[in-house]
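Quick review question:
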């Protein structure tokens, strides 16, 4: 990322109060958008808890099954930080991945269709012009 002069920015749907907890394990800039202003400005509208449809291949970043993902989320969320319960934002709100150039023109956009629909890292890095193994 540094070599390509790119940065990752994470925007969450919950309260800004959760940012400190996430910063412990995330080296990137994190912002909160609880009013969903950026969310709507980027054309995201989907809210669902649906998983990968049966006719689609599961993304490679999903290494655990449904139960493993649920338990991991509970462990790293409410059990680890009980003071943040209720501050996570809308759990059915789907996001996406976007790449902007230095003029803030969007050069890549992916809006999630279901909860397991993030862009593969290799595809995202390619879109950002970042050399990735």
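Suggested answer, residue by residue:
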């Amino acid at each position: 990322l540094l070599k390509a002069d790119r940065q990752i920015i994470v925007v969450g749907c919950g309260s800004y109060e959760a940012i400190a907890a996430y910063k412990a394990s995330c080296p990137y800039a994190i912002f909160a958008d609880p009013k969903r202003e950026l969310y709507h400005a980027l054309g995201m509208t989907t809210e669902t808890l649906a998983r990968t449809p049966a006719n689609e291949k599961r993304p490679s970043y999903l290494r655990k099954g449904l139960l493993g993902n649920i338990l991991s989320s509970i462990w790293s969320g409410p059990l680890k930080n009980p003071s943040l319960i209720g501050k996570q934002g809308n759990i059915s709100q789907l996001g996406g991945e976007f790449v902007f150039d230095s003029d803030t023109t969007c050069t890549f956009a992916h809006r999630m269709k279901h909860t397991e629909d993030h862009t593969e890292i290799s595809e995202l890095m390619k879109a950002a012009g970042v050399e990735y193994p």
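Why it works: The two ends are 12 Å apart (CA to CA). The longest helix spans residues 66-79.
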